[in-house]
Amino acid sequence: MCIRDRCINFSSKTSSLDVQKTLEDNIEKRMKGVFGPVAGKDLALFIDDMNMPRVDLYGTQQPIALLKMLVDRGGLYDRAKDLQWFKVVGLQYVAAMGPPGGGRNPVDPRFISLFSTFCIAFPLDASLNKIYSSMLMGHMEAFDDGIKGVASKMTTITMDLYSCLLYTSPSPRDS
Q1: What count of Cα atoms within 13 Å lies in the side-chain half-sphere of residue 64?
Q2: How many other C-beta atoms are found inside a 10 Å radius of the C-beta of residue 103?
Q3: What is the spatial distance between Cα 51 and Cα 11, in angstroms, rounded to a whole number?
Q4: CA atoms 141, 142, 145, 148: torsion sign
Q5: Pseudo-torsion of CA 158, 163, 169, 170, nearest 10°?
Q6: How far is Cα 39 from Cα 28, in angstroms, rounded to an integer?
Q7: pLDDT digits (tens, 9 = 90+) for 120-163
Q8: Phi, psi at 79, each rounded to 5°
Q9: Structural contact between residues 96 and 50, judged by C-beta atoms closer than 8 angstroms
């Protein structure tokens, strides 16, 4: 089975209509009342920053409510044609989000329960240093040995600068 992918980047301005239009642009009618990706293919829908949509007056994130209905009930209402229900088949869902705070909102636990959830801790400084210095060394292969020797020091200094800025820069609540 061939799988196509589609990425939806959520922001505080993302609406349920935006999500539905994006989805409808990537599926087609298979038979009466049933829609899905092109025949013979599945569609992997990647939702980035899933907890970014703002919470409305009633405590709901409308794009999340739409996705919950899609994942849980397997379909949507057609907003263009008298709210007719249509089934959506051949979709796989993958999502990513950071912890709540800084513009990210808690997501409905009933929606989260529909996913297999993995929590990935931020890597240690030593791991980041190894990753970035390896990448930098790969890019410096064409340079002289004197420049190559600076790569690991440059990575360490850059990481130290980042840490310094991270803990000393003002946050929005300090303004």
Answers
A1: 28
A2: 13
A3: 8
A4: negative
A5: 150
A6: 9
A7: 888 898 899 899 988 998 888 888 888 887 877 888 899 889 88
A8: -75, -20
A9: yes
